[in-house]
Write a structure and sequence with these properties.
CATH topology of one domain: Immunoglobulin-like
Helix content: 40-55%
Strand order of the largest sheet: 6-5-9-3-2-12-15-14
CATH architecture of one domain: Sandwich
Number of helices: 29
CATH superfamily of one domain: tricorn interacting facor f3 domain
Strand content: 15-25%
Largest sheet: 8 strands, mixed
Distance between the termini: 8 Å
Bound molecules: phenylalanine, zinc ion
Radius of gyration: 28 Å
């Protein structure tokens, strides 16, 4: 079993060292105020900093400043030059007094900063990214989140090339200087950690609006983008105003500055960043219009804009004491943005999407070598912990508390948390304690959700005694070992449960069952006939559930459960059981007994749902989508990529063929709905491409023609991309024609060209690998833009049958990427290790090749600590 000890034992892991949560110490010194002056240009930026230092507690230790990049050119203490010394990853010097003013200067070359951390250039503009430890790449600093200071920032630059100069807080003054330069002075009154500092300089266009808070303060809103993109900001602005109103209404939280600025940049490692009063976004989460963005993109923009806005309270006003507490702000903020999106659209569909995401990325992470608790105990590189576990499982943990407390008491817990910790750098424990007191919950056992990695396994069985009319629910919980955690204590698992009467086709009310023991049984009286068990409704707990249930009961739930998530879940389970049985049957007869529901029954259920009036189109499309190949792989002990691909393809074909007429009807009905952003129109677009997909899977002779027609006639990106995704998997002349026309139409629009790359490498076309090789050499492919790298490679590594091709050439291609990208951008590179780290789930031949690739990476001299950490853990 891998543990922390063996993790430190590997030579590659000794320097730099592993950092432990248990080692937390408050800072020896604090910075109370920061005055920064920047003389900005793309190739050289000069920084002059004045820091007011205060000794923290009675001790005689020196001042230590973290430093990663420019060493100070000058450093004065109260006006006198200081002899500082290098110490580890920083500098140190002695200070005789309890308070002192440090002035220092550094010089940076933004246009060579390919890591995109610190101050960097992107498309002729300058911007910063400081979370988690980027500020130390600008100046040496006490760069930790519990060091909160008030910032004043003076920016100077050439006025013609950088007409817009932005930083946190509000503009104090601005004006012209000599030689065509100008300046702007910004002040942020709220003390903040350095990771929330930001500046932007560039030639940008602003879309402006305003918002009046509930207490009557006017906030000037602006979204800054490159010239030419200003017609694509309306949706983001709308989302921002809706978020501001929602946080007031649902959490009672108001915005606290007179300005809120957003800037879109095209080179960005992550989605977006919540810098105080100056959010910086990956342009893909800002720019949208019907011609270039899909409905899915619109939703993602709304969600990310809300997420960053909500951080103003859950993250900025109350920040994290140290980076082990990351989920304090991220899990909570994801939960908040999920609830916001549910309120803006469909709660049921949002929940299904979020659970699908969780299962697709977090469950595998939690079952593999990189598994960690939502509050990790150690790390080597904090950038590696911006994970689906910290974010999405973190959100599930908050959601469970909300479920247990109910809305009013949950709100009371949040109120207490914000009131008690406003202006502080807090811990996850602080949140739990506020929730315990404010919501009157006992969370003693619940704290284990912060400590334990791994997805709990829950078994459920309903027993019925006709003589007494008693239904007994038997529950049991189990845990698999995860790295460093071989045995696990029991967890409290909240399971929303209902027993559905077979005759009434309804239940008598839902119960929240708390599973706290290894095994538990609950009795329900008054059931003459055995009811059908509906459990973990709404996915109330992030667990793997194994319910002993007849396939007929699943079909009953698909038709009659009143919880939309449970209906979805029941149909997914039916399909998974069928496919797993089909995969076993590929080995020939005599395999395991086939208890799965028949193909006829699946087709019958699908047939009902295609035209079921009780569900809207958006839900219909959700429910009638088959589980992905990767998800099916997760259900197997040893993943069999070819067998999964073949079985799933055959099922799709059968569903397509036998329901061909209904699919055609749906496609025609939905095609008649004109474009708008209404829920009905969006639902229609979703089922339209779903139906088209099944028509194509049926290999109908006119499928390519119908797809091309949808593509060519589309007046919006959702329909155009939906059709092109289907064409991209077909072997038809229309495929090439459509791909070329799409490329030519959108040449120069990076975000749409990203789609063009992704559609090809994520397709089910037999020659994806060869296409991949061509695209790597395409003139529009570049390693310096993270969006483009992800657009090309992520769909490829997620394309299970292609990436895991038996030859192993998929693994080699990814390894080549890692070795080329790591010297440029370690943070983005490290995210590509996990797919190779899943080697334990594959047969010996594949596992050997995958390990070989990891070893080839580790042998690379000068490998970043980001990649080293992930590779070493993956090999253990
Ligand atoms: N804090 C950002 C968010 O979740 C994510 C982020 C992390 C962005 C690190 C950049 C760098 O909203
Ligand atoms: Zn966040």
């Amino acid at each position: 079993m891998a543990d922390i000890q063996t993790a430190t034992a590997h030579p590659a892991m000794q320097d730099p060292p592993v950092i432990y949560r248990a080692d937390y110490q408050p800072p020896d010194w604090r910075v109370e105020t920061v005055a920064l002056e920047f003389d900005l240009d793309l190739s050289a930026a000069e920084v002059h900093a004045t820091l007011a230092l205060v000794r923290n507690g009675a001790h005689d230790r020196p001042v230590r400043l973290d430093c990663d990049g420019p060493l100070p050119q000058t450093l004065d203490l109260d006006g006198q030059p200081v002899n500082w010394r290098s110490e580890g990853h920083g500098i140190a010097f002695d200070v005789p007094t309890d308070r002192a003013t440090v002035t220092l200067t550094t010089r940076i070359a933004p246009d060579t900063n390919t890591q995109l951390m610190g101050l960097f250039a992107s498309n002729g503009m300058l911007c910063t990214q400081c979370e988690a430890e980027g500020f130390r790449r600008i100046i040496p600093f006490i760069d930790r989140p519990d060091n909160m200071a008030v910032y004043e920032v003076l920016l100077r630059a050439d006025k013609r090339r950088f007409p817009v100069l932005l930083s946190n807080g509000a503009l104090v003054e601005s004006g012209d200087l000599e030689d065509g330069r100008h300046y702007a002075r910004w002040h942020d009154p709220h003390p903040k950690p350095s990771y929330l500092f930001a500046l932007v300089a560039g030639d940008l266009m602003a879309t402006r609006d305003s918002f009046t808070t509930k207490s009557g303060q006017t906030v000037d809103l602006a979204i800054f983008v490159r010239a030419g993109d200003e017609g694509r900001t309306a949706h983001a602005m709308q989302a921002l105003k809706a978020s501001m109103a929602w946080d007031e209404r649902v959490y009672g939280l108001e915005y606290d500055l007179p300005v809120f600025n957003i800037v879109a940049v095209s080179d960005f490692n992550m989605g977006a960043m919540e810098n105080k009063g100056l959010n910086i976004f990956n342009s893909r989460y800002i720019l949208a219009d019907p011609d270039t963005a899909t409905d899915y993109d619109y939703d993602a923009i709304e969600g990310v804009v809300a997420h960053e806005y909500f951080h103003n309270w859950s993250g900025n006003r109350v920040t994290c004491r140290d980076w082990f507490q990351l989920s304090l702000k991220e899990g909570f903020t994801v939960y908040r943005d999920q609830c916001f999106s549910a309120d803006m659209g469909s709660e049921a569909v949002k929940r299904i999407e979020d659970v699908r995401m969780l299962r697709a990325s977090q469950f595998p992470e939690d079952a593999g070598p990189l598994a960690h608790p939502i509050r990790p105990d150690s790390y080597m590189e904090i950038s590696n912990f911006y994970t689906s576990t910290v974010y999405n499982k973190g959100a599930e943990v908050i959601r469970m508390m909300a479920t247990m407390a109910g809305p009013e008491r949950f709100r009371a817990g949040c109120d207490l948390y914000f009131r008690r910790h406003d202006g502080e750098a807090a811990t996850c424990e602080d949140f739990v304690r506020a929730m315990e007191e404010g919501a009157s919950l006992d969370l003693t056992q619940f704290r284990r959700w912060y400590e334990q990695a791994g997805t709990p396994q829950v078994q459920a069985r309903l027993e019925h005694d006709a003589a007494t009319g008693t239904a007994t629910l038997h529950l049991r919980q189990n845990f698999a070992a995860t790295p460093g955690q071989p045995v696990k204590p029991l967890m409290p698992i909240p399971l929303r449960t209902a027993l559905i009467d077979r005759d009434m086709k309804a239940h008598r009310g839902e119960t929240l069952v708390m599973l706290t023991e290894a095994e538990q049984s609950l009795q329900f009286e008054g059931y003459a006939r055995a009811p059908v068990l509906s459990i973990n409704r709404g996915f109330s707990a992030p667990v793997n559930l194994d319910v002993a249930r007849a396939s007929g009961d699943l079909a009953f739930l698909v038709r009659h459960d009143d919880d939309p998530f449970a209906r979805y879940e029941a149909l997914q389970q039916l399909v998974i059981d069928r496919l797993i049985a089909d995969i076993a049957a590929l080995d020939g007869p005599g395999g395991a007994e086939d208890h799965a529901v028949s193909l006829d029954e699946i087709i019958a259920v699908f047939g009902d749902l295609v035209s079921d009036q009780r569900i809207d189109d958006s839900m219909r499309a959700e429910i009638l989508s088959l589980p992905t190949e990767a998800f099916l792989g997760e259900q197997m002990l040893v993943v069999r990529p070819e067998a999964i691909h073949a079985a799933r393809r055959a099922l799709r074909k059968a569903i397509g063929l036998r329901l061909l007429d209904p699919w055609r009807i749906v496609h025609e009905r939905a095609s008649a709905v004109p474009y708008s952003l209404s829920r009905e129109a969006r639902g229609a677009r979703k089922v339209k491409s779903l139906a088209l997909g099944y028509i194509a899977s049926a290999e109908a002779s006119d499928a390519a023609a119908i797809a091309f027609d949808q593509f060519a006639r589309a007046d919006n990106m959702t329909d155009r991309q939906g059709a092109l995704a289907i064409l991209a998997s077909m072997q038809a002349d229309e495929r090439e024609t459509a791909l070329d026309s799409f490329y030519n139409r959108y040449q120069g629009n990076a975000l749409v060209i990203d789609k063009w790359f992704s559609l090809q490498t994520g397709s089910a076309h037999p020659r994806v690998h060869e296409q991949m090789l061509e695209l790597i050499r395409h003139k529009d492919f570049t390693l310096t833009n993270p969006n483009r790298v992800r657009a090309l490679y992520w769909p490829f590594v997620s394309n299970q049958a292609v990436f895991h091709e038996a030859s192993g050439r998929g693994y080699e291609l990814l390894t080549d990427l890692v070795l080329k990208l790591d010297p440029l951008n370690p943070q983005t590179t490290a995210r590509f290790i996990a797919p190779l780290g899943r080697w334990r789930r594959f047969d010996e031949a594949r596992a050997g090749m995958m390990r070989g690739c990891l070893e080839r990476i580790l042998a690379q001299p000068g490998l970043s600590k980001d990649v080293t950490e992930q590779v070493v853990k993956s090999l253990e």
